[in-house]
Prior knowledge:
Strands 1-2-3-5-4-8-9-7-6 form a 9-stranded antiparallel β-sheet, sandwiched between helices. The radius of gyration is 19 Å and the shape is globular. Residues about 20-30 have low confidence and may be disordered. Helices cover about 35% and strands about 20% of the residues. The protein contains 7 helices and 9 strands. The chain is of the alpha+beta class.
Amino acid sequence: MQGSRRTLKLLTVLLLVLIVGLIISAFHFQKNSNALWQIISEKCVPNLAKSGNPAPCQQVNTSQGYVTLKDLNGPLQYLLMPIEKITGMESPIILEPTTPNLFADAWQQRSLLEKKRGTPIADSALSLAINAQYGRTQNQLHIHISCLRPDVRQRLDALSPGLNEQWQPATLRKHRYLIRTLSTAELAQQSAFIRLATEVPDARSEMGKYGMALTALPDGRLALLALERNWLMLNSGSAEELQDHQCQILNH
């Protein structure tokens, strides 16, 4: 009898996971998943070539291979995206040495938020995030440049003394993250994607399962975070969960 109950519970959990996965997949495909790519390829890049104005993008940096675009969600959020067609974390292109160092480029472009706001913003309030393959709605790689959630800021501040250059687990937003520190120079020297693929066991063959984030620590170091998808924990690999696009942290 007890064994039958355990089997029933297991089947119930597996059914729930399947249903959640189907719901997330349906949400993933219900919208125009190529909308961002169409903006880049049909508007921003052609407009720059024709008139010198990259609208609706803020900039098209052909030498560095990326564009920046003000996101409709939130007063300050921007997106940094490659000019090249790259679907996302699962694309092998992100691990090629010739691919632009997009995370480093996005961190450099964080000044867009304070330009938009008109006043300085501390790095401690800012963050980058990219979602896993099934934790996103768009099939053009895009890095969210936005504010960090205040509760995540407090959690990282508490964790900071124990963080170092080794990946170590920590719970944020009820999900298991891997976190390691690095300097701004190290961020510029090596792609965050390549760093994840080479330093975390089995990550290279499963990159599409991961979301990633970046923010500053109180002592000036950077924290690089990786979130692996886990359907059993209702975790789609959306590292964007660490961000607050309404930027409540700026009101504290």
